[in-house]
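@channel sequence for tomorrow's demo:
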Amino acid sequence: MSSAQQKIDDLLDRLNQDRSPRSPHMSGHTPFGGLPPARPSLPIGLNSNSNSPTMQRPRHLAFAHKANDNTEVERRLKEIMKNSGDLLIDDKVYYTDIKEMEHIEELGNGTCGHVVKMKHKPSGKVIAVKQMRRSGNSDEAKRIIMDIEVVLKSDCKYIVKCLGCFITESEVWICMELMDTCFDKLLKRLKQAVPEEVLGKVSVATVEALAYLKDYHNVIHRDVKPSNILLDSKGNVKLCDFGISGRLVDSMAKSRSAGCAAYMAPERIEPDPQNPDYDVRADVWSLGITLVELATGVFPYQDCKTDFEVLTKVIGTDPPSLPKDKDFSTEFRNFVACCLTKDKKQRPKYTKLKNHIFIKKYQETEVNVGDWYVRALESVGDRAAIRKASSPE
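C-alpha cells (generated this afternoon):
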C-alpha cells in the first residue's frame, strides 16, 4: 500500500468513528448547519502506532495536559453561563427562562443533537435553536464552546446571527435567527443548478464571512460546504456552523480536525511531512468545490461510491472545473479555477480573492436572490415552501 493510500485510510478511520454516511449526498445535511458529527482529534496520516512525538508523550504529561485542557473548557463554559438565557431579539434584551421557549417543529438532526424551530414567547419571535446534550466529553465541549464563542462575538451580516444561549447542567441551546433553508437541501429540492448571478452573491457572502473570521477572530472555518451556507426569502446568504472551526497560530491551523471529506483540500488529505500545517486556503478550496456543485447541480466527484474514492481522486487527478459546454462567464470560470488550484502555495487567500473581478462585479451588481428563490420553488411546485418563504414570522 502506498503512503498516500495509508494516509487516506487513516483519515477515513477517524472520519467514520462517529459518522454513519459515506457519501456527501447521503449524509442528511441539515439547515442552520445542523450539528456536525463528533470530529477526530488525531493528526491526519497518523494512527495509534505512529512514531510521532505527539503520540509518544509520557502518560503523566498527557494526563496533566488533558486535566488542564478540561479545566480551561469548564472555565470558558462557566463564563458563558453567566449570560445564559439573555436573548437579544430585535435590539431588546430578554432575560428568558428556558420554559418560555415553545417547540414548533424539528428542522434537522445531527450526531451531537438537533436543530428545532421554536417560538420565544415573551417576544413572539420564531427562531432556530441548536440543541446539544452535555456528555462530559471534553472534545465535544470544545466544539460547543467554539460554536458559541464564534457566533456570539461575530458582527458580520454574512454570518448567521446568534441571539444568545441557554446552558444547563445537561444541555446547551444556541439560539439563532431563523433562515429558510441551506443550499444543500435547496439543490436536492430543485434538482437543477443555481444561476451564476446568484452564485456571485453566494461567493461574495462566503468570502466576506470567511475573511471576517480570519481578520477579527483569527479563526478558520474548516467545514465550508452547501449545507453550511444558508438562505432566506429576503435574499440573505449567510455562513453557519462553527463547531469545528479552529484557532490560527501564526496564520496556520495546527489541528488535524476534519470537516466533510468530500470538500477537503488536498493539503489536508495528504499533508506535506515537512510542513503539515494548513491555512485559510483550505477553506478556499472547499468554496471552489461548493461552487462547482451548485453551478452544475451535481457533486463534482459524483461517480465515486466511497469517501476513499473521493479522497484518492482529489489527490491523484486534476481539480474539478466548470463544464466547457455550459454558458458560464470567463470571470466565473477563472474564479473557480483560482479556488481549485491544487498547489496551496499558488491558491489565493482572501485579500486576493476579494479583489478578483468576479467578486468585484457581484459586490456592485444588484441581484434579487430572494425573488429567484421564490420563483425556483414555484418552478418545482413546492407550495408548502413557497408559503413558508412568503409568510411573515
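heads up for whoever presents: Residues 18-65, 247-254 have pLDDT under 50 and may be disordered.
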